[in-house]
Specification:
This protein is mainly beta. It has one domain: Beta Barrel (OB fold (Dihydrolipoamide Acetyltransferase, E2P)). Helices cover about 0% and strands about 55% of the residues. The protein has no helices and five strands. A five-stranded mixed β-barrel has the order 1-2-3-5-4. The radius of gyration is 15 Å and the shape is globular.
């Protein structure tokens, strides 16, 4: 029996492209607080592998989990969803 791990896929916005072959992507999610029933916005920043340095700040991308490439980089860009507004 093979034990395949399910790879997570998230959608976010590129916030930095200053590094070589790496972009920083901010993923925003909204959820309702369990006790107070108020909507909360949670943001998290991921370092994502970008082999050809093709993504720019403001691009909306879909990222997928992968094996670790460095200490903090365990994601790669799966596809581009939207263009930069710059």
């Amino acid at each position: 029996m093979t034990d395949k791990k399910i790879k997570r896929v998230l959608t976010g916005t590129v916030v930095s492209d200053a590094m070589d072959k790496t972009v920083a992507v901010r993923v925003t999610r909204r959820f309702k607080h369990a006790l107070y029933k108020k909507m909360i916005t949670s943001r998290k920043k991921y370092l994502v592998h970008d082999e050809e340095n093709q993504f720019k700040v403001g691009d909306v991308v879909r990222i997928q989990e992968c094996a670790p490439m460095s200490k903090r980089k365990t994601w790669f860009v799966k596809e581009k969803i939207g263009e930069s507004r710059r």
